Amino acid sequence: MSYGLLKGKRGIIFGALDENSIAWKTAERVHEEGGSFVLTNAPIAMRMGTINQLAEKTGAAIIPADATSLEDLEKLVSESVEVLGGKLDFVLHSIGMSVNVRKGRSYTDQKYDWTAKGWDVSAGSFHKVMQVLYKQDVMNEWGSIVALSYMAAQRVFPDYNDMADNKAFLESIARSFGYFFGRDKKVRVNTISQSPTPTTAGKGIKGFDGFISYAEKMSPLGNASALDCANYTLSLFSDLTRKVTLQNLFHDGGFSNMGVSDAVMQAFEEQQNT
Ligand SMILES: NC(=O)c1ccc[n+]([C@@H]2O[C@H](COP(=O)([O-])OP(=O)(O)OC[C@H]3O[C@@H](n4cnc5c(N)ncnc54)[C@H](O)[C@@H]3O)[C@@H](O)[C@H]2O)c1
To answer: Which domains does the chain have, with CATH numbers?
Structure first.
């Protein structure tokens, strides 16, 4: 269903790799709601993924950028304003990667140059994106910037590894930069803390299958899908949420406030009786 929520709005969407990506679903929904945007991803992801199909479907231009490179970001932002024909109303940062996770190094055995790389990609890049947007003064008043997070920023999920620290940093950047963006440009900055979702990044976490089933059983509404996340993101890009800023917003079917559920208790009781 389309509500025309983003009619006439312009933006940049980072992180659509393939059709499972949260950014992919968001791009499709933004398009349906009348928004126009530039799609961007790391040059290497352009070769691995299928972003061209998404660009065709949504009439979007693609401008590659490594989100850790200020030079790439400066070019991306100025070219986007040109291509879209005006200042921006929304930006989605949907980027995450840990080299320690990818290479199977545990939290207690990190290789610190990998830790630094993962931090730069997953958290530092959010500061860089916002600094470039701020300095180039390309956000319209009442614009909205959203990044995606995960609850391991607050609670322990051992296999989430150094990504937990990256997400805590990301959420802090949203608050800190959000202050300046709100004060100086009337722009909102928030993070959405999303349920586990079967994407390339999600499935890279050890034990993901068990964990996603556990979260499903724990959450009174069940896990939020990538499409659910896209819809929630749209609400934050729309004019209906103008005074929401500096927040980390849980979008997880209720998981974050649960202690235990009947379904999880039942699974343990069944196990004990066998
Ligand atoms: N999947 C989950 O379970 C889950 C849960 C909560 C939050 N998130 C977050 O959602 C966001 C999107 O991830 P996803 O699950 O859609 O997976 P995904 O793998 O589809 O997306 C991750 C994206 O990050 C991009 N990326 C990596 N390095 C980059 C760089 N240097 N420059 C630019 N882009 C780069 C990748 O190319 C990819 O498009 C991430 O921040 C992730 O941590 C995911």
So the answer is: 10-272 (3.40.50.720)
